[in-house]
Amino acid sequence: MNVSAAFRFGGKSRRHRAALVAGLAAAVLGSATGTGAASDHRSGVRLPNQLSVHIVYQAKHGHIWTVNGADRAAVRLRAGGAIVVVNDDLRPHLLMIGGGSKVVTFGSPDMNFVGARVKVVFPKPGVYELTTVFGAPYVDDIKVIGSPSTLRLKLTVN
Asked: 130 pairs with which residues across the strands?
């Protein structure tokens, strides 16, 4: 038996197999990106259903927050979506949400230990401002260059 004949995939040509694989990949990726996302009607950009926001320690100004791993000052979310805020800082933080309409929280916005988290659901469109009030550090010998900054994040929900 010819070894190459055993691996012909039903005798189809390479071009045909490549088209099948590309079509299957597009179908899988299209359904995966469409899960939990809606598009903004003005820009056509797909908005996420959930964001992960981490408050992290840094030497310059004490702390920052990252949104899905990137340092951001403004983000967008679809209506009905949620953010999960995790305190990975060396200080306690109280999450405060201003603007927009009423939100639903799961967990305490008083994140007073490392690893504390709160999930916030935004049922209606609007512009929200997330800020934190921070407390004294858990340990005395952490170094901060400059004064600790107040965290602010502008969240637009469409």
From this structure: 97, 153
Residue type, 56: V
- Domain membership of residue 40 (yes or no) is no
CA distance 94 to 87: 10
**Are the C-beta atoms of 61 and 92 separated by less than 8 Å?**
no
Tokens of 156: 């637009």
Q: Give the Cβ contact number of residue 115 at 10 Å.
A: 8
Together in a domain, 68 and 16: no
Q: What DSSP line would sit under 22-77, residue for residue? A: HHHHHHHHHHHHHTT-EE-TTT-PEEPSEEEEEEEE-SBTSEEEEETTEE-SEEEE
**Gap between the Cα atoms of 155 and 120, Å rounded:** 12
**Mean pLDDT value of segment 119-133:** 94
The predicted-structure confidence for 31-47, as pLDDT tens digits, reads as follows 333 334 444 455 556 78
Nearest-angstrom CA–CA distance, 122 and 125 = 7
| Total count of domains within the chain | 2
What residue has token string 């305490």? 108
